[in-house]
């Protein structure tokens, strides 16, 4: 009986979370615009998605401390010529990134 209750609770818990899919861009940072720091970072990449094509202005806009760390990471990618993975919510038309990975390749 307890197993049925726990299984039912777990299934209900899973159904209560919303699931959002992500789009990923893998490419090089081409331009980094610090003018709007610390509120927003604008930059462009060598690759894109259907709604945010290569060369368009992309944004990173989170907390001030997070923006500073993201800016440093984007600057490191730009200066080293390393690729990054940049993740957007699926069908995002504002081109505002959610997650960022600096790649070693």
What keyword list fits this structure?
105 residues; alpha+beta; OB fold (Dihydrolipoamide Acetyltransferase, E2P); 5-stranded antiparallel beta sheet; 2 helices; 30% helix; 30% strand; globular
Number of helices: 2
The chain-level structural class is alpha+beta
Mean pLDDT: 88
CATH architecture, by name, is Beta Barrel
* CATH fold type: OB fold (Dihydrolipoamide Acetyltransferase, E2P)
Low-confidence stretches: none
Q: What distance separates the N and C termini?
A: 53 Å
Characterize the biggest β-sheet: 5 strands, antiparallel
> Spatial order of the strands in the main sheet?
3-2-1-4-5
How large, in whole angstroms, is the Cα Rg? 18 Å
SSE topology string = HEEEHEE
- Form type: globular
Total E-strand runs? 5
What CATH first level would be assigned?
Mainly Beta
> How many discrete domains?
1
Question: How big a fraction of the residues is strand?
Answer: 25-35%
Helix content: 25-40%
Give your account of this protein's structure:
The chain has 105 residues and is α+β, with helices and mostly antiparallel strands. The protein has a single domain (19-102), classed as OB fold (Dihydrolipoamide Acetyltransferase, E2P), CATH 2.40.50.340. Helix content is 30%, strand content 30%. The chain has 2 helices and 5 strands; from the N terminus they run αβββαββ. The chain has helices at residues 2-16, 64-80, and strands at residues 22-33, 41-45, 58-60, 83-89, 99-102. It has a 5-stranded antiparallel sheet. Strand 1 and strand 2 (41-45) form a beta hairpin. The termini are far apart. The relative contact order is 0.21. The mean pLDDT is 88.
């Amino acid at each position: 009986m307890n197993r049925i209750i726990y299984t039912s609770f777990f299934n209900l818990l899973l159904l209560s979370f919303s699931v959002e899919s992500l789009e990923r861009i893998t490419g090089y940072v081409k331009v980094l615009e610090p003018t709007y720091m610390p509120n927003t970072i604008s930059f462009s990449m060598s690759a894109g998605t259907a709604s945010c094509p290569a060369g368009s202005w992309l944004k990173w806009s989170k907390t001030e401390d997070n923006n500073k760390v993201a800016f440093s990471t984007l600057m490191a990618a730009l200066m080293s010529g390393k690729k990054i993975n940049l993740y957007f919510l699926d069908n995002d038309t504002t081109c505002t990134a959610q997650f960022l990975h600096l790649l070693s390749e």
